[in-house]
Amino acid sequence: CRCEAICSLARSVFTCYFNICLLFCDCVWCTCTSMNRQRLDKPTLDQVQAHLTDKGIDTGTLLECSLIDNDRGGTFYVNFERLESVMRVWDAHCSWWSFEFERQGERETSALQLAQKADLQSPGVLISGHVDLAGKSRHYMVTKYVAGAREDEWEEKQPPERFARLAVGVLKKLSSNSNLTPQKLVAQGLLKDTESIDDFALPYMPDHNAVLKYLRGRAEEINEPSIVDIVEKVADLFASVQPLPCGACLVHSDIHPGNLLLDTDFQLLAVVDWEEAAISDIRIDIAQACLACANRDMIWSMFEEDTGMNLGDKIPWLALVALMRFMVSVQIDWYERTGKEVPDKNLSGWESLCSDAEELLIELNVLPNPEAARE
């Protein structure tokens, strides 16, 4: 950061040091801090409707539908009479804890396009692009409307086998679009041959080393040496891990019952919420799904049986996924410790996830057991 000295001086004297820093610098950290404190103006319905008309898209009368009350999810527009399509407009700049998602809209669009190539049930992308709305250039995407209930919304308590079977079906299709190299993405029309993989909207982290490098960088950015040590402990678990034949695949990164839309016969209609998708090792997604299942071992063994693929030891991957979730609680602590405003107020779900992740890291001997330490 170019303004490190200014920030340091201001931090020691002023409680509102953001404002002083922002007078001198437009670096990513300062911009992120500023955006976390300012809600961007939303486009009007008339603006959205006019843009679609210019594109020759007849959606009928749209209504705004805000599903979550924060600054990162953008806004949804739905015609509740036709229920044919959904338009989503992202904020010009989004941040999640201190993770930068300036291309969050492009990320989800690219993920859905890849999911369609893998013949995976997902909301089909009708059109996407950028449009100037409310004085900002914003990414938008129009997808087909999917009418279904989330897997966790059904009234009767369902056995873990049902979610496991649904999850494995999704994971098998994701792994079928395998060995996603930059060259293959160019061939599929998702990356221009004049671009590098760094220009692609989806994070390209083809193996566990890339993921660990990312997490290590996050811990170093917020100056948490103890967290860097935890990352190294998880890295040690991967000493004997071998790559899979399928290589890098599209991973959803958040497979759980709430992201599976089902019909009344409990058949999968669509997998939703692709905003955390990446290109990486499929075992990351399998481990994520394992943690969302009441029986942690079921999905791992079921995937191996269905595909004949030897996934190896699941412990390193469970630890890696738990560490990714644990990093969220680290970010929360960092915001509170430094007096910053937490950008997302919807913490109810994350608190339990972070707690579960911490318990798993203790179980895997990555984190020290506080009970044992007290004894």
Describe the overall structure.
The chain has 375 residues and is α+β, with helices and mostly antiparallel strands. 44% of the residues lie in helices and 14% in strands. It has 14 helices and twelve strands. Helix 6 runs antiparallel to helix 10 (282-292), helix 10 packs across helix 12 (315-337) and helix 12 crosses helix 13. It starts with a helix and ends with a helix. Mean pLDDT is 77; it is low at 7-40, 68-72 and 92-101.
Which helices and strands occur, and which strands form pairs?
Layout: H1 4-13, H2 17-24, H3 28-36, H4 45-54, E1 63-65, E2 75-78, E3 85-89, E4 95-96, E5 99-100, H5 104-117, E6 125-133, E7 136-144, E8 149-150, H6 160-176, H7 182-187, H8 208-221, H9 225-236, E9 248-251, E10 260-262, E11 268-271, E12 278-281, H10 282-292, H11 298-307, H12 315-337, H13 348-363, H14 370-374
Antiparallel strand pairs: 1-2, 2-3, 3-7, 4-5, 6-7, 8-10, 9-12, 10-11
Number of strands: 12
What is the CA-atom radius of gyration, in angstroms? 22 Å
Low-confidence parts: 7-40, 68-72, 92-101
- Write down the overall mean pLDDT: 77
Order of helices and strands: HHHHEEEEEHEEEHHHHEEEEHHHHH
* Assembly context of the chains: single chain
Number of helices: 14
User: Spatial order of the strands in the main sheet?
Assistant: 1-2-3-7-6
Q: What structural class should be given to the helix and strand makeup?
A: alpha+beta
Query: Level of helix content?
Result: 40-55%
- Content of β-strand: 5-15%
Biggest sheet details: 5 strands, antiparallel
Q: How does the overall form come out from the CA principal axes?
A: globular
Instruction: Give the N-terminus to C-terminus distance in angstroms.
Output: 44 Å
